[in-house]
Task: inverse folding
């Protein structure tokens, strides 16, 4: 098969791919190709019509499509960046060959000097959480409802129950309510919401939508169409209390039960994954375990802010540029160890001389704790698994470490 | 005392508002920035929200995303939604273009948030 040579190939033209392309172009890469399976760039931002994007990156509040457009507009400045939409990558090899179906018929093979993985993440479906019951219509993931409503103007039903209190579920609770669809309840298995606090306020409390913490669905009822769900409270070890179950009628069930980085292609290329982030192990340059293959955005770890995706993806783009140009990276790294109440940290390897921002997620919510990294202790008012903690290690701070960096949350006062 | 969660940015500061004896005068604590204090004051008097939605586009299968250019009083959101549902946008439309002025009689414009050629 004829191979098309390319300097930098980026898989996915969502916020990560776009920012990576711009970062690489600014750093002097001559030929950049973005492949995306949708028919327009921007990724999932195009269906996120709500506002709240860009406060950090652009210092103003934008909607998803507006945020995407800021980056798409910048592409005009860089003729070296090309986008092929309706292009589905089917295979990547460790020696950086990329096979993609362009349009509906043509299979192309690209030989890239460097690859950036920017495929984003996908939603956990019903099958991933094993809810018992029948299999009627009317069960959707929150992102699917968002796509149907915001892109095509279609309504998913009349009376909805939302399982999971992640941000997309909360955002959709508000969106459905404004469109005249009754949201009867948002259910959360955990004793706390996994969404941002601001979304609990502006999406649920504003519309008096009840949030049932420590509750889950034990059965889906309905033949052709869902007619209701059996709901039960759960114990502290998350087991349903069956004799306290109650029926809530509905014609729509929306699942917002977590996002998983989409790494099938990464695995084909031999990229090693971190079981905690479900994304590739990366270093300060967002380089994976395979030289010349980089990963950024939600494919690397699920972010709560797109602004952080843009910031880290620019770093990945610049690093890919340095790799293509044959510049030497730092070759020594500190491994990041997870201490008390730390679920994941990215990057997992910190270059010994490179300023690096750590993105930290916790296992459970706590008050009155300090983030401890080496000698540094930073007081945290509240930590929750839904909100990333960020900490930047300057070259000055990096001097105290010798072979690894342990990140932990240390108690100062007992939680009330 | 009223406890609020600031919705201005994703940090979501927990703000305490303590009423003073004088009307419309408060002690505001817990905000990390001046915008939080501003939010808390507004929330005590007239809570306001930006409204985002989609409108139909003539002869096109896809919807056009829109937003209120300024925040609307919370109690006007559903009235504004009724007006938004009546709109049929005619392409070409540029992002930022006004699709309806004086939304729900608030004086606020509804604008497109995407270009539709």
Result:
């Amino acid at each position: 098969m004829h191979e098309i040579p390319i300097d930098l190939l980026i898989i996915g033209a969502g916020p990560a791919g776009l920012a990576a392309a711009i970062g690489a172009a600014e750093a002097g890469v001559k030929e950049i190709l973005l492949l995306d399976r949708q028919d327009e760039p921007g990724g999932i931002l195009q269906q996120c019509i709500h506002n709240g994007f860009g406060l950090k990156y652009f210092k103003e509040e934008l909607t998803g499509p507006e945020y995407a457009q800021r980056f798409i507009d910048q592409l005009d400045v860089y003729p070296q960046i090309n986008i092929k939409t309706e292009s589905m990558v089917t295979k990547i090899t460790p020696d950086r060959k990329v096979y993609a179906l362009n349009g509906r018929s043509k299979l192309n093979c690209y030989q890239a000097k460097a690859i950036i993985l920017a495929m984003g993440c996908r939603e956990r479906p019903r099958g991933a959480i094993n809810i018992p019951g029948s299999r009627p219509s009317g069960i959707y993931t929150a992102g699917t409802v968002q796509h149907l409503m915001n892109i095509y103007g279609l309504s998913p039903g009349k009376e909805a129950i939302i399982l999971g209190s992640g941000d997309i579920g909360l955002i959709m609770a508000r969106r459905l309510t404004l469109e005249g669809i009754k949201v009867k309840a948002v259910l959360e298995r955990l004793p706390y919401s996994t969404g941002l606090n601001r979304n609990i306020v502006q999406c649920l409390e504003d519309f008096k939508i009840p949030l049932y913490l420590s509750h889950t669905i034990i059965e889906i009822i309905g033949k052709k169409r869902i007619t209701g769900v059996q709901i039960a409270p759960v114990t502290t070890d998350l087991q349903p209390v069956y004799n306290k179950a109650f029926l809530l009628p509905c014609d729509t069930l929306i699942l917002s039960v977590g996002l998983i980085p989409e790494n099938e292609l990464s695995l084909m290329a031999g990229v090693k994954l971190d079981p905690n982030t479900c994304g590739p192990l990366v270093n300060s340059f967002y380089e994976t375990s395979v030289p010349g293959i980089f990963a950024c955005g939600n494919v690397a770890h699920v972010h709560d802010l797109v602004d952080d995706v843009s910031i880290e993806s620019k770093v990945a783009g610049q690093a890919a540029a340095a790799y293509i140009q044959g510049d030497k990276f730092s070759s020594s790294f500190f491994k990041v160890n997870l201490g008390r109440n730390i679920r994941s940290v990215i990057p997992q390897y910190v270059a010994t001389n490179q300023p690096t921002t750590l993105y930290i997620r916790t296992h459970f919510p706590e008050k009155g704790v300090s983030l401890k990294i080496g000698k540094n202790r930073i007081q945290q008012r509240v930590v929750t698994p839904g909100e990333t903690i960020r900490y930047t290690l300057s070259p000055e701070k990096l001097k105290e470490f010798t072979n690894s960096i342990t990140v932990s949350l240390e108690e100062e006062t007992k939680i009330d | 005392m009223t406890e609020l969660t600031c919705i201005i940015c994703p940090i979501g500061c927990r703000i305490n508002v303590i009423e003073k004896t004088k009307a419309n005068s408060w002690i505001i604590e817990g905000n990390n920035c001046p915008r939080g204090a501003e939010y808390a004051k507004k929330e005590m008097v007239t809570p306001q929200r930006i409204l985002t939605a989609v409108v139909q586009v003539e002869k096109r299968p896809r919807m056009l995303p829109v937003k209120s250019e300024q925040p609307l009083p919370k109690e006007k959101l559903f009235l504004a939604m009724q007006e938004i549902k009546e709109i049929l946008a005619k392409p070409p439309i540029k992002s930022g273009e006004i699709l309806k002025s004086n939304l729900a009689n608030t004086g606020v414009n509804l604008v497109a948030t995407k270009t539709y050629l």
